[in-house]
Amino acid sequence: MDCLQVAHFVTFHCFEDLEILHASLNGILPHDVRIREVSAVHPDFHARFSAQRKTYKYKAYVAPVMEPFQRSYAYHIRHQLNINAMQAAALYFVGEHDFSAFANASNDLSLRPPVREIVQFNVVATVRAFVTAQVFCRAIVCKSLELPLYLTYCSPP
User: Fold this and answer.
1) Beta pairing, strands 60-62 & 75-77
2) I need a labelling partner for 118 at 20 to 30 A (CA). Which of 23, 26, 56, 108 fits?
3) Among 43, 44, 52, which Cα is nearest to 6's?
4) What is the mean pLDDT of residues 134-141?
5) Distances (CA, A) of 113 to 107, 108, 120, 121
6) What gap in Å lies between CA 115 and CA 108, rounded to an integer?
7) What per-residue confidence (pLDDT) applies to 11?
8) 70 CB contacts (<8 Å, ≥6 apart)?
9) pLDDT by residue (tens digit) across 40-76?
10) What are residue 61's DSSP bridge partners?
11) SS3 (DSSP) at 60
């Protein structure tokens, strides 16, 4: 699934060509931030409140020492997790639930009912793979020469 972020802004300027706006915005943004699409929407549209569905992904780095390159992308957990127990517990979240206990006290719950449906809740464990430069280069050569590639797993140093 593609990770999409939707944003909106209100302007009193009438853009005749949205492609010019699209190119201009991408021209001033940092290179690791891109706008994929620009479109006009109804004045009542709000990126947060008009969403039909939201996807939340949380990433944990489970190891005694945090990988420095992951520090901005994952929560560090030093002890091992019981993935089977987490997967079993996740099933209890699927379905329709009342989240009024988590609502902001200043919100008028009559405007936006706190009942939400969780369609899917997955707990997935992935394994970190280590590939040496020699194996990587051999894979490129074998691919370019259309030779079979045999890999052996070596534990990291």
Assistant:
1) parallel
2) 108
3) 52
4) 60
5) 10, 9, 20, 21
6) 13
7) 86
8) 59, 61
9) 888 898 888 888 888 888 888 888 888 888 889 888 9
10) 76
11) strand
